[in-house]
Structure of ATP phosphoribosyltransferase:
Amino acid sequence: MTVKLGIPSKGRLMEQTLAWFGDREIGLSRAGSDREYAGAVSGIDGVELILLSAGEVPRELAAGRLHLGVTGTDLVREKIPLWRTQIETVAELGFGHADLIIAVPKFWTDVETLDDLDAVAARFRADHGHRLRIATKYHRLVREHLQSAGVADYLIVDSQGATEGTVKNLTAEAIADITSTGATLEANHLKVLADGPILASQATLFASHVTPWSEAEQKTLTRIADMLGAKLPEAFI
Ligand SMILES: Nc1ncnc2c1ncn2[C@@H]1O[C@H](COP(=O)(O)OP(=O)(O)OP(=O)(O)O)[C@@H](O)[C@H]1O
Ligand SMILES: O=P(O)(O)OC[C@H]1O[C@H](OP(=O)(O)OP(=O)(O)O)[C@H](O)[C@@H]1O
């Protein structure tokens, strides 16, 4: 049986993943055209490459349909509740760095921290007849973070893209999203709360231990870890 390795099928994350494995003598490439999501592997036997959405990698690992997968830590933490029971970190890849943050309009001069947001949220409901809305696709991580900070008077509004635009479009008062350069926040006149990020994410190689690996697959994994200079997670030793 082959080891199924899933990597993002487009964008910077895919390009950097291909380059990262290439630098470690594992050649990953698309098998055909840009639109074909099958991959080719050289430099190691027994590995099958699958190109898929970064957002789907966590689910496929948790279902045991992928043995290995590259995606952002943010997506694994958001999509797999008890991720450590199903998935192990093999290597952090050192790119795709981004922080999950909460941001509010710059003109909210009385809001710099979560405590300030909490105070405004309580007043907001009385003043506007509805709860303060936070647009995000990171529902679980944001809820957990706000709960631990004691912020309760808010509503999550789902936003799967262009999240920073929701404030201007009046569908939310605040947002929670990934930022790296800060340019998108700046362009949308938003400022990050000062308490620090909810999560610091980067591209990571994960291994699934949901279904047992065959002996041949284990051997391939050991070889991969050697080539990548990665330490095998406990569950695989
Ligand atoms: N501006 C950014 N800088 C660095 N990393 C980012 C940035 N935006 C998103 N990422 C990271 O890239 C990964 C993929 O993000 P996202 O799900 O938005 O990708 P996508 O290309 O929209 O994927 P999909 O194929 O699911 O639509 C996430 O782990 C995220 O943290
Ligand atoms: O801090 P910055 O460097 O400006 O990057 C942040 C932006 O990058 C991501 O969006 P992406 O370009 O993936 O598009 P999306 O809005 O569809 O998620 C993220 O959702 C932010 O909008």
Notes: The chain has a mean pLDDT of 95. The chain has eight helices and 13 strands. The radius of gyration is 20 Å.
